[in-house]
Structure formats: C-alpha cells, structure tokens
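Example (one chain per record):
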Amino acid sequence: MGGIIAHSTQSFGYHPQRQCAPLLRTISTRSDHLAAAWRGSRIRSRFPQPHHRPMTTPEHTLVGVHLALALGWQRSIGWPAVALAGVASNVPDWDGLPMLVDMQAFEAGHRVWGHNLLAIAIASGFLAWSQVRWRWCDRIAAQVWRMVDRTAVPGSQGPTGKLSGACALGIAAAAQLVHLPCDLVVSGGHGLSDWPIRPLWPFSEVAFVFPLIPWGDVGPTVILMAGAIWAAKHPAQVTAVSAVTLAFLGVYLVARGWARGMLPI
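Predicted structure:
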C-alpha cells in the first residue's frame, strides 16, 4: 500500500509543502489583516480591556451566592433562594447593555439606570413574579443539586424548598442592594476616572463613589473563587465558609483602601 500511495502522489504531482505553502501564506496574511482591523475597530473599543475591567458578572454572582449561603438560606428556604440571589446580584448591570450598540448611551446610563432604588424595586417585583409564574429558580437549583453530595449538606431544603413570592421579592431586593456597595468601592485606577453610582436617580442626581480598590484588582476574584472551592470541598460547613469568605473580602477591601490612602486609619 505504501508503494501505491507514493506512486499516486507522484503521478498527480502532489507535493504537500509546495501545495500548502501559498495557502498558509494567504491565511497568515489575512489573519494579520483581521487582527490589525480588530485592534483599530470601534467594536473592540466598546469592551473594557482586561486590566481595566470593573467588577464583573462572576464576582457579583459569587457575592450573591456567598451572601445566601452565609445567611443559611439553603437550609431555611431552600436552594432556589441561593439561585435567585446569584442571578439577582447581577441584575443592576442591565444598564450596561447599551454598550453593544451605543457607547454614548452606555456612558450616560451605566451605574445609573439600573443602579438605583426605583429600578431595583421594579426588577425585584419582576423577578419574584417570574419565579412564582415559572419556578425558574427551582430548575436552576435542581441542576446544581444533581452535582452535589446530598448527604453532605445537612438540614438543606433540597432543590425545591419553599420560595414564596414575598420571600423571592425580599431576596431579589437584598441581592441587588448588595450590588451597589460592591460597585461603590471598585472604581478608577490605571489612569481612569472614578465612575460613581446614583442610587436616588431619577429623583436626585447625587452620586456616590468610594474607590477602595481600582478596576482590575484580582483580589476579590481570588477570594470569592477560593471561598467557592473551599465550600465545595466542605459542604457541611458551607455557611461558615461563605461567612468567612465575605469577612475576608471585607478585610481585604479595608486594607487596600488604607494602602491607597482612602481610609484615615
């Protein structure tokens, strides 16, 4: 068979290096052109660069989840409460969606339209209504429940629990309210100006910012992820683990704020 293959390639003039080289050069050239176009494109400029990123979805989600676990909602209410807290903790950032179509609208509306008490109240009502109507938190909790050792989580209400409409309303509001101080203390740095929040908008334009750490600080990400891994390895102590994680996060914020001269300690 080896002789037949060799003969066939020779008879048809098939030389892999000669045939592929022009194609590879073309692909390389086109790739360089695309990369250059991307580097100078308006689309790319709409997205924060990695070292300039603010507190993002994973961090907000983990704050909401750790808060729910630290308060023991997985025992008193059920895992749907944890799922709702994780989702709701990101909802105020809906005002960042204009970034996809209009950067001016994004700059005007982010940390304003969704980061205020009125928007939080409306969003909380919608989340609670949708949970009562479709029980989507129960489905998320059921998916997570399949991946955990049920015997290692004593006292848990399981994937269904008893998440009523009023309870869902309170959890959604609490998780969103926690979002505001998170954004309050993460701002500026790397030559960027601080980006305040307006919690009383549209009734007042008063703005607040207290930048303890700059955008791009990996400390909160590391702490929250380490806490999640620790909780996964020790599910029986998940409440204590999440409480310690949030406490350590608070200590880190204070220490970094003091180092930046933001706290007169």
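Caption: The chain has one domain: 53-259.
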